[in-house]
Task: inverse folding
């Protein structure tokens, strides 16, 4: 009877954990599938990481002095190096980068499940089944942290490869018996550091715990890790002329550290959000301790859990940190909890101990409740719709149609996608300017109007790019869902403003008089008919001058209308203006003298200066009439002058 009660308690709780965990795994697998092939950034730094991989694949260094052309992120290089190597086979792009992350994440979850089933006290079928069920529950808890940890597990970012390598080091440390496994764990943690520096927290914790529990293995782990780190960092630093260390360490120190956020806000948030997980960890540890089933390797598990929690707190305290910093604060406590709960369940079943079974079932139920508490991810927040994919294509078409190699600082990889030259990422600019100043060539390029266009996101700050306001002007605002796409992870930003150079008007001839240049931003004195020209001048596009012009193309080709100037007294023999537009008999600029048409000219497909001889109208008044009767095109007129 007692054995049946024990079996019923443990089996029910383990099954609940498995059911809740599998639900989380299913939901997130479906979510990842809906995101993996999206053709633009899901998160605004994805494209920047692809640029790192592109440079490595092309044999270019990434740790270089900051410049207009490129500034590396403050991360170690293993993840983009992996992408660069794989790109030789699969081609570089968002799909490759996300698949590496998805597979890394899946492999991490597999390690957790395998660890849960390999550390059993008993080998009975019910024990193995319970351990597997708990393993699935623990994997589900990790998957459930997708939203909580910033929605980063499937991105072109280093986080998932990082936790795989850290998880592999932990797996080898707790499952291995000899020096070989310890050495492999050292290699794994060194590669984890070269993936992201925060691996140092978990690596030091594993090494210290091994020294306490299996000191010979601890020495091998530490020696191998130190050797790989020294050789790799030494080569990277020497080959980069010291820039590697400057980026991955010194520049980090220039970022503010927010102690309150690190040591007050973050631990409270993690414990509040994942309290049942930590409850399961505590219950399992207590149950094993009471049953005298704790192992020395459990010190390693607990050390990794504590280090992961501390890494999350420290990471989120850094200036500009995002919730992906929380990842180790959930993953490694979940890893430890899963292994310990699985072992306690197996022990309860093998020993038929009612106290052990009660604690085991409570711990397994806590994993289930944690999964249920988080619930299903809100797919509409994270998964692009067909409309988003269509908007992405429109955005690329828009960029493709813009002239030359423009500056897209928030999403520089978009330039690569449309066959243009990329420039530095805005995050890189922000990373270096406090310690190293503005990147070489950036502000000078803006001042010199080197870029034929600029695309800025809605999160651009006032005066973030000196000279931009003076040398460029917004010609179009685009919106998410139309010709722009929002981010689905990370900072909520999206392309918003398209800017063109503000071109100074041509000099007036001697004695010339500028009649209308529209720079006041209004049509004062003009008569507007129809909807082609709008209620005010349009932002000056290529071929116009200053910031505004009379442009009937602004609202699309189907808009029709006429713009008539106030009477112009002819006191000089020439009337001059610029004219842009395609050849179309329904587009023209007419000079009207009373009931008579004095002159008429249409665009010819280029931007040109039209010079009308009005000497025969001296002493009379005329009206300049700009006509758009075309349903397929528009025309632009600017800088109307007499001389």
Result:
């Amino acid at each position: 009877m007692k054995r049946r009660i024990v079996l019923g308690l443990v089996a029910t709780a383990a099954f609940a954990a498995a059911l809740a965990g599998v639900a989380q795994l299913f939901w997130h697998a479906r979510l990842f599938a809906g995101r993996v092939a999206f053709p633009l950034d899901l998160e605004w730094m994805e494209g920047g990481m692809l640029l790192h991989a592109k440079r490595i694949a092309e044999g270019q260094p990434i740790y270089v002095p900051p410049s207009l052309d490129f500034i590396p992120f403050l991360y170690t290089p293993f993840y983009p190096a992996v992408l660069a190597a794989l790109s030789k086979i699969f081609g570089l792009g968002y799909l490759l980068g996300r698949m590496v992350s998805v597979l890394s994440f899946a492999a991490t979850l597999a390690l957790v499940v395998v660890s849960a089933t390999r550390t059993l006290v008993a080998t009975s079928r019910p024990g193995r089944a319970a351990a597997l069920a708990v393993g699935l529950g623990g994997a589900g808890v990790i998957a459930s942290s997708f939203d909580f940890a910033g929605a980063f597990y499937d991105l072109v970012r280093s986080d998932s490869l990082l936790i795989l390598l850290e998880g592999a080091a932990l797996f080898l440390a707790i499952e291995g018996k000899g020096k070989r496994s310890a050495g492999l764990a050292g290699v794994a943690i060194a590669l984890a550091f070269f993936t992201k520096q925060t691996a140092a927290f978990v690596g030091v914790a594993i090494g210290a715990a091994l020294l306490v529990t299996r000191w010979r293995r601890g020495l091998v782990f530490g020696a191998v890790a130190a050797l790989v780190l020294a050789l790799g960092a030494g080569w990277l630093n020497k080959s980069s002329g010291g820039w590697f260390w400057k980026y991955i360490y010194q520049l980090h120190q220039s970022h503010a550290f927010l102690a309150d956020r690190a040591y007050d806000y973050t631990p409270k948030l993690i414990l509040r959000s994942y309290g049942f997980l930590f409850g399961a960890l505590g219950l399992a540890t207590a149950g094993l301790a009471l049953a005298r089933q704790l192992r020395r390797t459990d010190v390693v598990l607990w050390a990794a859990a504590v280090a992961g929690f501390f890494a999350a707190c420290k990471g989120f305290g850094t200036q500009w940190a995002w919730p992906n910093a929380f990842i180790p604060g959930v993953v490694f406590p979940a890893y430890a909890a899963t292994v310990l709960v699985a072992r306690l369940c197996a022990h309860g079943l093998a020993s038929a101990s009612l106290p052990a079974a009660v604690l085991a079932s409570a711990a397994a139920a806590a994993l289930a409740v944690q999964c249920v508490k988080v619930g299903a991810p809100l797919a509409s927040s994270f998964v692009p719709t067909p409309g988003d994919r269509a908007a992405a294509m429109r955005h690329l078409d828009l960029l493709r149609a813009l002239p030359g190699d423009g500056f897209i600082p928030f999403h520089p990889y978009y330039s690569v996608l449309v066959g243009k030259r990329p420039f530095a990422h805005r995050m890189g600019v922000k990373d270096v300017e406090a310690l190293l100043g503005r990147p070489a060539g950036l502000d000078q390029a803006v001042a010199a109007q080197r870029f034929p266009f600029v695309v800025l996101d809605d999160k651009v700050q006032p005066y973030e790019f000196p000279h931009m306001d003076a040398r460029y002007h917004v010609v179009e605002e685009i919106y998410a869902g139309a010709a722009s796409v929002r981010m689905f992870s990370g900072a909520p930003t999206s392309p918003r403003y398209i800017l063109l150079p503000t071109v100074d008007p041509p000099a007036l001839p001697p004695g010339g008089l500028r009649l209308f240049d529209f720079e006041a931003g209004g049509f004062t004195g003009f008569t507007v008919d129809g909807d082609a020209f709008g209620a005010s001048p349009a932002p000056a596009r290529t071929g116009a001058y200053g910031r505004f012009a009379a442009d009937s193309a602004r609202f699309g080709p189907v808009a029709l209308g006429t713009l008539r100037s106030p009477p112009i007294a002819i006191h000089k023999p020439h009337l001059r203006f610029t004219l842009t537009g395609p050849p179309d008999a329904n587009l023209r600029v007419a000079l009207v003298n009373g009931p008579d048409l004095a002159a008429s000219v249409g665009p010819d497909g280029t931007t040109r200066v039209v010079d009308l001889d009005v000497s025969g109208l001296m002493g009379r008044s005329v009206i300049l009439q700009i006509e758009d009767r075309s349903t397929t095109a528009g025309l632009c007129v600017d800088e109307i002058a007499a001389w």
Observations:
- The chain has 21 helices and 15 strands.
- The chain has a mean pLDDT of 96.
- Residues 234 and 245 are 9 Å apart (CA to CA).
